[in-house]
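Bumping my old thread because nobody answered last time. Still need a sequence for this structure:
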C-alpha cells in the first residue's frame, strides 16, 4: 500500500479456481479476526467494499480458506500538502495489553505515523491479562502517563504515552465442609500489597476448627499477610462435640476518657449444656490501661471494665478478649476501644456482635 496515507479503502476481488469458503483481510501484525471478509465465493468473482487500517509500513494481512487469486483496488487518502508527520508510540506496563486507538485494537507497544496535531482517541481496558499472565493474576488500570482519563483525546506529537497497571491477585476463600459455617470476605480480586481481614463463623451446632492455606490457627478475624500472589484460605468446621460455648461483645462504650473507665457486655452462648466457669483475659490494651471482669461461675452476661490512666494516649485501639474453661478456649478480636482526651461523653453505647 502507499505509505503516508491517512486511510485506505480496498475493493477486494477473489477469483477462485473452484470455490472459496472465505477470505479474511486485517491489519498486518495484529491477531487474525474471527469473522470472514468474504464468504462462499462460488461464482468466481465476489467484490466487497471494506475499510482496513494498514500498519505503519502500509501492509495488511490476508488469509484464504482455499486456493484463489486476489485482486486489490486501493484508494488512499492523504493529508493536505505541507503536513508534517510525527511518530507517536503507545505502550503499557506491563507490555502486551491491547489498547483501543481510534476504535481499532492494537497490542502494545504500537507506533503510529500521524499528521502532527491531528486528533485521536485512546482507550485502555480497566483490567487486563496479557498473554503469558499466570493464572490468578490480572492487571488493574492505574493511569496514563499523560494523566488523561481511561479514554481520552490526544493530539499527535513525537512522544510516547504509557498506560500504567498494577497487579491484582485472586483470593479464594472456602468453607470445609460446605454448609457448616461461613467465611468473609468471599473470593475475589485483591490489589497487590493489601492485607485483608478474614473472619470465620460456625453455624449452629458446629464449631470452628481453624484456618488453613494462607492462614492458620483459630483466631478470627485475622489479617492475611500483604498479598503478592494468588492465595487460598479455607475455614474448617466440625460438628460441636460435648459442652462448649461461644463469646460475643454485645455492647461497647462509645468512648472512654483518659483517666476514666467504660463497660463492655460479654454475651456467652452455652452449647450442648455447657455450664462451667469461664475465666477471661484481655490483651492489646494501650499503655496505662487495664481490664477487670465480674466473677460468675455460669454462662450469663459478663462485664469487662476497661480503665485508663492519665498516661494512656488518646486514640483508637482494638482489643482481644479470651475466654477459657478447661481445655476450651475462644477469642473475640478487633474489639474497639476509643480513648478520648477531655471530659467523658455521656451518650449511649453501641450494640454489635463479633
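Sorry it took so long. Here it is:
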Amino acid at each position: 500500500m502507499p505509505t503516508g496515507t491517512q486511510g485506505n479503502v480496498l475493493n477486494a476481488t477473489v477469483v477462485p479456481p473452484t470455490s472459496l469458503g472465505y477470505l479474511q483481510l486485517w491489519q498486518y501484525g495484529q491477531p487474525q479476526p474471527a469473522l470472514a471478509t468474504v464468504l462462499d465465493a462460488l461464482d468466481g468473482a465476489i467484490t466487497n467494499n471494506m475499510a482496513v487500517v494498514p500498519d505503519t509500513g502500509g501492509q495488511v494481512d490476508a488469509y484464504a480458506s482455499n486456493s484463489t487469486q486476489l485482486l486489490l483496488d486501493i484508494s488512499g487518502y492523504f493529508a493536505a500538502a505541507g503536513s508534517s508527520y510525527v511518530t507517536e508510540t503507545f505502550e503499557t506496563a506491563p507490555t502486551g495489553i491491547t489498547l483501543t486507538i481510534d476504535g481499532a485494537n492494537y497490542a502494545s507497544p504500537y507506533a503510529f505515523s500521524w499528521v502532527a496535531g491531528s486528533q485521536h482517541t485512546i482507550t485502555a481496558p480497566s483490567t487486563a491479562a496479557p498473554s503469558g499472565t499466570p493464572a490468578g493474576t490480572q492487571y488493574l488500570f492505574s493511569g496514563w502517563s499523560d494523566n488523561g482519563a481511561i479514554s481520552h483525546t490526544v493530539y499527535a506529537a513525537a512522544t510516547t504515552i504509557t498506560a500504567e497497571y498494577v497487579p491484582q491477585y485472586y483470593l479464594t476463600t472456602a468453607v470445609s465442609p460446605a454448609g457448616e459455617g461461613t467465611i468473609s470476605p468471599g473470593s475475589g480480586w485483591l490489589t497487590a500489597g493489601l492485607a485483608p481481614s478474614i473472619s470465620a463463623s460456625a453455624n449452629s451446632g458446629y464449631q470452628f476448627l481453624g484456618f488453613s492455606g494462607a492462614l492458620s490457627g483459630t483466631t478470627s478475624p485475622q489479617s492475611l499477610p500483604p498479598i503478592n500472589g494468588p492465595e487460598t484460605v479455607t475455614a474448617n468446621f466440625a460438628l460441636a462435640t460435648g459442652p462448649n460455648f461461644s463469646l460475643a461483645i454485645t455492647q461497647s462504650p462509645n468512648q472512654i476518657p483518659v483517666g476514666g473507665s467504660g463497660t463492655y457486655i460479654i454475651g456467652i452462648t452455652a452449647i450442648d449444656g455447657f455450664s462451667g466457669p469461664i475465666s477471661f483475659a484481655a490483651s492489646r490494651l494501650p499503655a496505662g490501661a487495664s481490664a477487670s471482669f465480674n466473677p460468675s461461675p455460669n454462662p450469663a452476661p459478663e462485664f469487662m471494665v476497661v480503665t485508663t490512666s492519665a498516661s494512656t494516649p488518646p486514640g483508637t485501639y482494638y482489643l482481644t478478649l479470651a475466654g477459657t474453661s478447661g481445655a476450651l478456649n475462644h477469642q473475640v478480636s478487633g474489639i474497639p476501644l476509643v480513648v478520648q482526651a477531655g471530659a467523658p461523653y455521656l451518650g449511649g453505647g453501641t450494640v454489635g456482635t463479633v
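Residues 157 and 305 are 68 Å apart (CA to CA). Let me know if any region looks off to you.
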